[in-house]
Structures are given as structure tokens and as C-alpha cells.
Amino acid sequence: MEEVGRWGRLAASPVFLYGRSLGVPESALAPGGNSGNPIYDFFIGHELNPRIGSFDLKYFCELRPGLIGWVSERVNPGECGQAGATCPKTGTPATFSRFINHLPAVISSWSL
């Protein structure tokens, strides 16, 4: 039953966004997702930038999880994630490289 609740919440978001997009002005609709076919429009995305107030839902739901995965993938230095492994000390070039790799994630998440 708990699994049904998770899938229900997951399915509620796109249904809510599509239903909400039916009441927005024509200028707020995406050109590709405004075909007139409701099934096609639902899957392509009807509204261009769905917002609740100043909170951008598309930015939060698409960009944020991807960047979190990207950063967490680069934080673990390979074999140091294995149980009982000893990690060598990270040098300055590797630390600088990690900082540069994480910079886009930090910059794009700054406004959230």
C-alpha cells in the first residue's frame, strides 16, 4: 500500500501541472506542447515555465535532481567508497579540479 502512495504522489505532479496549464494565457504555452491533442500535449509539456508564485517548478523538478546526482557521483573518489579501503590524500590539483567540476551545480542552484 505504501508503494501505491509513492506512485500516486509521483503521478499527481504532472496531472496537476497539465490541468493548471489549461487556464493560463496562450502566450505562456510552449509552442511544441500546444498541438491541440491532449495526450501529446500532456507528454511534451503544455506550459512553457510552470510557476507557483516565483517558484519555477520545471527548474526545481528537472535541474535540481540531475545536479544532485552529478555532484554526488563526483564526490566519491572511486575505490575510497569501498569498505575497508584506505584513501590517499587528495592533492591540490585534484581538489581544484573537483571545485571546478562542482561550480556549475553551485551556480545554477544559487537562486533556489
Automatic annotation (TrEMBL):
Record PANTHER family: DELTA(14)-STEROL REDUCTASE, DELTA(14)-STEROL REDUCTASE TM7SF2
Catalytic reaction list: 4,4-dimethyl-5alpha-cholesta-8,24-dien-3beta-ol + NADP(+) = 4,4-dimethyl-5alpha-cholesta-8,14,24-trien-3beta-ol + NADPH + H(+)
Name of the featured protein: Delta(14)-sterol reductase TM7SF2
Lipid biosynthesis is among the record's keywords: yes
Membrane disposition: Multi-pass membrane protein
Organism: Scyliorhinus torazame (Cloudy catshark)
Domain of life: Eukaryota
EC identifiers of the protein: 1.3.1.70
The keyword Membrane is annotated on this UniProt entry: yes
One GO cellular component term noted in the UniProt record for this chain: nuclear inner membrane
Family indicated by similarity: Belongs to the ERG4/ERG24 family.
Single annotated GO MF: Delta14-sterol reductase activity
Pfam family, one: ERG4_ERG24
Compartment(s): Endoplasmic reticulum membrane; Membrane; Microsome membrane
Keywords from the UniProt entry: Cholesterol biosynthesis, Cholesterol metabolism, Endoplasmic reticulum, Lipid biosynthesis, Lipid metabolism, Membrane, Oxidoreductase, Steroid biosynthesis, Steroid metabolism, Sterol biosynthesis, Sterol metabolism, Transmembrane, Transmembrane helix
Pathway membership, UniProt: Steroid biosynthesis; cholesterol biosynthesis
Any one biological process term the GO annotation gives: cholesterol biosynthetic process
Root EC class: oxidoreductase
Role description: Catalyzes the reduction of the C14-unsaturated bond of lanosterol, as part of the metabolic pathway leading to cholesterol biosynthesis.
Database matches in InterPro entries: ERG24_DHCR-like, Sterol_reductase_CS
